Amino acid sequence: MKKFFLLSTALVFFTGITNKTKAQGCVAIRQMGGVTAVTESNSYNLPKGTFQIGANYRYFHSWRHYVGTIEQPQRQTTGGGHDENGNDRGNAVNIYSHALDLNLSYGLTNRLQLNLSIPYAHNERSQVLRQTSPIKDTFRYSVFAQGLSDIRVSANYWLYDPAKSLKSNIMVGVGLKLPTGKHNVTDDAPQSDGTVKNVVMDQAIQPGDGGLGFSVELQGFKQIYRSLYAFGNGYYLFNPRESNGTFKSDPTVVKDANGNVLGTLYGYNVYACPDQYFLRAGVMTSVDKAKKLTVSLAYRWEGIPAFDAIGGQAAYRRPGYVMAIESGVSYRTGAHSLSLFVPYNICRNRIQSAADLANQNLQNSVITDKSKQVRVQGDAAFADYSISLGYAYRFGGKKTHNK
To answer: Which of 142, 234, 271, 285 is 20 to 30 A from 259, comparing alpha carbons?
Structure first.
């Protein structure tokens, strides 16, 4: 009897832009590990002494703006100047994100696996500038941030012996995220006065977040019927450092409706090192007699919380999440495997940040009529879908044979 192989975790992140926030472009969720398929047909684990190398490429384009779960369609059609036909081009922030992970895993035992992931990011942020001098103009321009991202090392352990647990198993994992990616990349950007300045790029497109983090992970699978399997995995990254020290903007001065200063929000003008999370569950099955071609359908939920589980909370972030339906296909032959996963977002939510709440509470502190109290909530730009393409090759260890 052939063992079915388990597809492991894939983590998608957003990037972001502007003073007000945008998400899955603007919610700076970063890729945390590639989608890889265990390649040997009679072994879902990585046997002792076996290596697996691979790469995972991910792409998304964020452009739909949301406040909470409410889309802001006017961002696509207003405020961006006009084309040669007089049509308004819209002022939505667009992010084009390309990420490549190089992955190496080693089976220390038949149940314990060690992993190394070296990621690289190339991100573009396209936005609108309203120039005031030397001539008034509104036009779109792009800035870029690219380079090595945050390297990750981890260890995974199967709770049950893979040699005996052929139809189900559970894997637990712990990891360390190193602050190897730059979080203060700069690029030349035009200014409203007609000059060009070299400025720090938005948090959403920075290759790294500047924090030393640690993660916990859980994944598992269970046979439902013949070649139909259910699977699930979850991941949480703890980033205890409150801020990476990168300057975002001057502290926000909060005023009431009459223009009177209520106070100044200090601490929210530098970028945070936020936590992030990922959940995925679905079903998969082989569709050919040789069990080389597998298709899957899954539900995904990933995002950045408004408050970290550990550490300070004041630094600036764009919190939010997306829920998606993910279709996937993988193919393996011998020691090689290929996989393609396309999550399509069905829910996008830019939630209130700590900065939003601090601003809101300060304004409402002088408004006695609750019906007139304000709600402060930034926006964020999300993608419709993302694409993850993976390849893995396994070598070393004892040779196994199909049964």
So the answer is: 271
CATH number, domain 50-391, options 3.40.1400.10, 3.40.50.12280, 2.60.40.1840, 2.40.160.40? 2.40.160.40
DSSP state for residue 357 in the 8-state scheme: H
Q: Both tokens of residue 23?
A: 């998400």
What distances in angstroms separate CA 348 from CA 140, 232, 315, one per listed residue?
25, 21, 23
Question: Residue 88 in contact with residue 81, Cβ under 8 Å?
Answer: yes
Closest C-alpha to 221, from 171, 172, 174, 173: 171
- φ and ψ at residue 334, rounded to 5 degrees: 60, -125
Provide the token pair at 224. Answer: 């439902």
Does residue 272 have a pLDDT over 50? yes
Return d(Cα 122, Cα 4) in angstroms, integer: 35
Take residue 359 and report the two structure tokens written for it.
């601003």
Strand-pair category, 94-107 with 112-131: antiparallel
β-bridge partners, 148: 120
Instruction: Give the Å distances, CA to CA, from 153 to 59, 105, 111.
Output: 23, 10, 17
Find all residues with CB under 8 Å of 282, minimum gap 6, and list them.
230, 231, 232, 296, 297, 298, 299, 326
Strands (E), 336-379: 336-349
pLDDT digits (tens, 9 = 90+) for 149-207: 999 999 999 999 999 999 999 999 999 999 999 999 999 999 999 999 999 999 999 99
C-alpha–C-alpha distance, residues 19 and 123, integer Å: 18
Using alpha carbons only, how large is the chain's radius of gyration in Å?
Answer: 23
Ordered by start, the domain boundaries in the chain are 50-391
Q: What percent of the chain has pLDDT over 90?
A: 81
Strand, helix or coil for residue 327:
strand
Structure token pair of residue 68: 């909470």
Q: Measure the CA–CA gap between 239 and 234, rounded to whole angstroms.
A: 17
pLDDT bracket for residue 397 (50, 70, 90) = confident
Question: What is residue 133's predicted lDDT score, i.e. its pLDDT?
Answer: 93
Q: Answer whether the bond into residue 134 is a cis peptide, omega within 30°.
A: yes
